[in-house]
């Protein structure tokens, strides 16, 4: 295990398990982005550089502004980018899909359509304090086919904060604040995908070796389209326990909370590498963004090895909203 060490004091036959989380969470700049590091282990990377696509794939699918890799405490990679079935899927990210701007449809999600995209713009601030590390960045939602010229449709301030949790786990606060300056505003149309926080899971996860559970007791067979306060996604890994996962929490101040979910059915793409979930606040109802008004969505992830119970998830959610 990476995040625990055992020190023994023979004189009194006392063994103390000391968490490496007693160390600071640090920030480290790399050629591709900014890493959150605990001990000597990078646990989360925010991508500031454009991630190129494989040869032969449209360059429009290359992008920046996403989380990958995100690793479990023992170093298991839980995210995936650019899968062959959806080259526009990028680890943990949250573009809006169908938006109406001055009567036109703009899609920030499906990069291949060349209508819109979301990319990293610049770092707003960085901070390391109190055992935690925090990164604030600007992401621009670009309207690529605006009548005059390409323009910023939505400015997003994304705050990512990483700090220790109990039982050798760690937590990630993911707070998105969006604003438009377009006269007349933007309508984020109701659709099964878009916004919030999306997660494309590790390639090895599929129907037979992973599971989903929501706060309302729904599993992967029944969760799609339901509303939930939290959702656990866990599956087989090379950790000594055999499993790792992420608990996603939606804050009770979020739009449409308990928040609607998009959860891929079990038979998607032959059952291998087919795990995708998303909190989608516009799934059942459109959302009007008025100009020069800021809107915030708050999420938290608890990243773990082993299993997580529904009772633990409830306790994490209560602590989050408190």
Automatic annotation (TrEMBL):
Alphabetized UniProt keyword annotations: Signal
Signal peptide stretch: 1-22
Domain of life from the UniProt record: Bacteria
Pfam families hit by this protein: DUF6807 (PF14100)
Protein name: Methane oxygenase PmoA
């Amino acid at each position: 295990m990476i995040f625990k060490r055992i020190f023994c004091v023979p004189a009194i036959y006392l063994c103390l398990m000391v968490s490496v989380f007693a160390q600071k969470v640090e920030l480290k700049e790399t050629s591709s982005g900014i890493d959150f590091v605990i001990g000597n282990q990078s646990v989360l990377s925010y991508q500031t550089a454009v991630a190129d696509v494989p040869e032969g794939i449209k360059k429009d699918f290359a992008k920046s502004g996403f989380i990958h890799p995100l690793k479990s405490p023992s170093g298991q990679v839980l995210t995936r980018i650019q899968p062959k079935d959806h080259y526009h899927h990028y680890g943990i990210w949250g573009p809006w899909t169908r938006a109406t701007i001055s009567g036109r449809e703009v899609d920030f999600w499906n990069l291949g359509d060349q209508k819109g995209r979301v990319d990293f713009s610049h770092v707003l601030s960085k901070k390391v304090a109190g055992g935690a590390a925090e990164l604030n960045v600007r992401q621009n939602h670009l309207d690529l086919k605006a009548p005059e010229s390409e323009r910023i449709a939505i400015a997003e301030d994304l705050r990512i904060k990483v700090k220790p949790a109990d039982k050798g786990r760690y937590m990630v606060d993911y707070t998105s604040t969006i604003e438009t300056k377009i006269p007349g505003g933007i309508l984020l149309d109701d659709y099964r995908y878009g916004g919030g926080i999306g997660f494309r899971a590790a390639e090895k996860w599929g129907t037979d070796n992973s599971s989903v559970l929501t706060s309302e007791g729904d599993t992967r067979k029944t969760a799609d389209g339901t509303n939930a306060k939290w959702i656990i996604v866990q599956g087989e890994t090379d950790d000594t326990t055999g499993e790792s996962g992420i608990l996603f929490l939606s804050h009770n101040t979020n739009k449409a909370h308990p928040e609607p979910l998009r959860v891929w059915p079990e038979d998607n793409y032959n059952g291998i590498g087919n795990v995708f979930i998303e909190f989608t606040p516009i799934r059942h109802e459109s959302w009007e963004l008025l100009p020069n008004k800021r809107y915030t969505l708050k999420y938290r992830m608890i990243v773990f090895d082993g299993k997580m119970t529904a009772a633990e998830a409830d306790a994490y959610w209560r602590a989050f909203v408190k």
